[in-house]
Amino acid sequence: MLQGKVGLILGVANKRSIAWAITRAADRAGAELVVTYQNERLQRSVQPLCDELSKPPTLLPCDVGDPAQIEALVEAVRARHGRIDFLVHCLAFARREDLEGSFRATPWAGFETAIQISAYSLVALARAAAPLMEGRSASILTLSYLGAEKVIPNYNVMGVAKAALEASVRYLAADLGPLGHRVNAVSAGPIKTLAASGVSGFSSVLDVVASRAPLRRNVEAEEVGDAALFFLSDLSRAVTGQVLYVDCGYQIMGF
Ligand code: NAD
After folding, report:
1. What is the pTM of this model?
2. Which secondary-structure segment (H or E) carries 78?
3. Cα distances (Å, whole numbers) of residue 220 to 95, 162, 171
4. β-pairing verdict for 139-144 and 58-61
5. How far apart are CA 103 and CA 143, in angstroms?
6. CB atoms within 10 A of CB 100
7. Which of the four pLDDT bands, split at 50, 70 and 90, describes residue 188?
8. CB under 6 Å to ligand 1: residues?
């Protein structure tokens, strides 16, 4: 499904990462991949994972908090691959102290960090990558969560960041649509990952979802990877600006 496409994937930290499940799905579908790591510490866990893929990906650093690193990443992709057919933004960050307790206690520093890393980085990446997407009918995909639209205990400032992210998906879709590019989000159900463990009380969220979701279970990262293939491939060529729930149906429940 992705044969002949060059994909840039940000957000792999370890084997539990949703970005890793997407990377494996894209690799199986035949894509030529560029995978990034946030810093040298994470490079040590991402490098051995990449050795498991059928085609060795290009591995590059990128901390999205640093505009110069985003520019350097895109330049390196241009030099090695010449184009981008799809971009996966699968990353988020908020300070641990802002993911528990009273939301009104969130200081500007924590609010700004969450928005910059978790939402604005999508806009910055789309802008930087657009020249490499020219004429490619490219697809941009990001990862969101129900906390963007409903209150989830302790999700706090990350819920606000995800709301900004989902609005950015719509504005980017309108902005890039005339160039032929699409921008969508997958809103995944809760999955035990490094980022999720930073949210206080996360395991009780898993229990609630498993007991109330129509499918009576939690989603697996591999299932998010499979759903991502729809957006990264031409199967979704007429779909843009959307948020698709991959959550065993939990989002439809009112009670
Ligand atoms: P994860 O910890 O495996 O991945 C988070 C990634 O964000 C890491 O690779 C980390 O290096 C990266 N990151 C953080 N700050 C960064 C920065 N400044 N520059 C570059 N990269 C940075 O956790 P995950 O759960 O796989 O998270 C991936 C995405 O999925 C996030 O957007 C998250 O909000 C979203 N999501 C997760 C769940 C869940 O329950 N796990 C549910 C819905 C959506």
Report:
1. 0.99
2. helix 67-81
3. 26, 20, 29
4. unpaired
5. 22
6. 15
7. very high
8. 11-13, 16-19, 38, 42, 62-65, 90-93, 117, 143-145, 188, 190-191, 193-196
| The two three-digit tokens of residue 160, written as one number | 């606000």
pLDDT in tens, 107-125: 999 999 999 999 999 999 9
88's tokens: 């996966």
Rounded Cα distance, 51 and 26, in Å: 15
- Report DSSP state, residue 38: S
Atom of ligand 1 nearest to the CA of 142: 32
Collapse the DSSP code of 114 into the 3-class scheme (helix H, G, I; strand E, B; otherwise coil) and give the result: helix
CB 84 within 8 A of CB 138: yes
Phi and psi at residue 61, in whole multiples of 5°?
Answer: -80, 150
23: tokens are 């990377």
Mutate to test the pocket of ligand 1, among 16, 18, 47, 71 (most ligand atoms within 8 A of CB): 18
The reply to whether 245 belongs to the active site is no
The stretches of 106-214 forming alpha helices (DSSP H) are 108-115, 121-133, 156-176, 202-212
Whether 155 is catalytic is: yes
